[in-house]
Design a protein that fits this description.
There is one protein chain. With 286 residues, the chain is an alpha/beta fold. It folds into two domains: 16-97 and 199-271, HAD superfamily/HAD-like (Rossmann fold), CATH 3.40.50.1000; 100-194, 2-Layer Sandwich (Hypothetical Protein, Haloacid Dehalogenase-like Hydrolase, Chain: A, domain 2). It is built from nine helices and 16 strands. The protein has helices at residues 34-45, 58-68, 103-112, 147-150, 167-176, 201-212, 229-234, 246-251, 265-271; strands at 16-19, 49-53, 72-76, 81-86, 91-97, 100-101, 117-122, 126-129, 142-144, 154-155, 157-161, 182-184, 191-194, 219-223, 237-240, 254-255. The chain has an eight-stranded mixed β-sheet with strand order 5-4-3-2-1-14-15-16, sandwiched between helices. A six-stranded mixed β-sheet has the order 9-8-7-11-13-12, covered by helices on one side. It has a two-stranded antiparallel sheet with strand order 6-10.
Amino acid sequence: MTSAQPTAPGVASGRLVCLDIDGTIADSNGTVSGAVATAIRELSDRGTHIVLATGRSLVATVPVFDQLDIDGYAVCSNGALTARVTGPSRRADVIEVVTFDSAALLGRLGALIPDASVAVEGSWLGFRVNREFPPGDLMGPSEVVGWARLATLDAIRVTIRAANGVAEELMTLLRELGVHSAGYDVLGRGWVDITPPGVSKATALENVRRLLGVEAEATYACGDQLNDMEMLSWAAHSVAMGGSPPGLQAVAGRVGGSVEDDGVLALLGPLLDDSRSPGDAACGAR
C-alpha cells in the first residue's frame, strides 16, 4: 500500500462539514437543489470548511464544486484520494492517494469469474478496464487494456461488475477470498468496489481535519448509504438521510428527510444560524 506522507496538524480553525454527494446533496440526476446549493455556499462564504466525501472518482466530483460554486476539499473513491478544489477553473490539487497491489486478487478473479467486467482506478485519474462498461457507469475516462495489464497496476479502487448483475454473489466470493474491504455500489449497478484495506471516508476526513486544525467537536457529516457509516460515526454531529439503511441511521445523531425533500438541510440549517456556536448547533450531536 502506498500513500502520501502524513500532514502536520494545522492551527485550530472553524467547522468542518462533510457531505456525501449522490443521494445526499444530489438527486438521481446528479442535480443539487437550489436550497441546498445556497446553504452550502453561504456556509463556505462564512468560513466553514466544506468537504465532499464520495464514492465518485475525482473527475466526477469536480463538476459538483462547479454546481455549488465553492472551493473545498474532495474525499473521493471512498477515501482513497483526497484533493483540494479551487478557483473558477476548479483546479484539483491531489493531497493524498492511497493505493494497493491488486495483482494477486485480479489473477484469482480472472480465473474464477472471467466474464466479469473489471475496472481499476488509479492515480492517473481514470479507469483501466478489461472490457467496456455501459456508458456513464464509471463517471470518468476509461481505457480497455485486458486482464493481464490490469494485474500490473497499483489501484486506488477495483470495481467488479457481475455478469449476471447480482452483487451479493460477488460479495460472497470476495469474502471467501479473504477480501474484507469491499462494498456494494451505492447506485445499484450490480457491482462491488474494493478499496485499500483500512481506508474509508473517515480515515481521509480525519487527515483533512488535522490538516486544517479543526477541533474534533466541530465536525459535521451527512450521508445516505453504508459507505457513509464510518464517516457518520467519526463526526461529532451527524445526520443520516431519510430512507437510508437502518444500520446507518443507528450510528447517526439524527435522521433527516430524503434527498427529494432536501433532507441535508437538517444538518446545514442550524449551522447557518449565527447565534449558535459549532458546539451548540442542533445537528445531531452524539
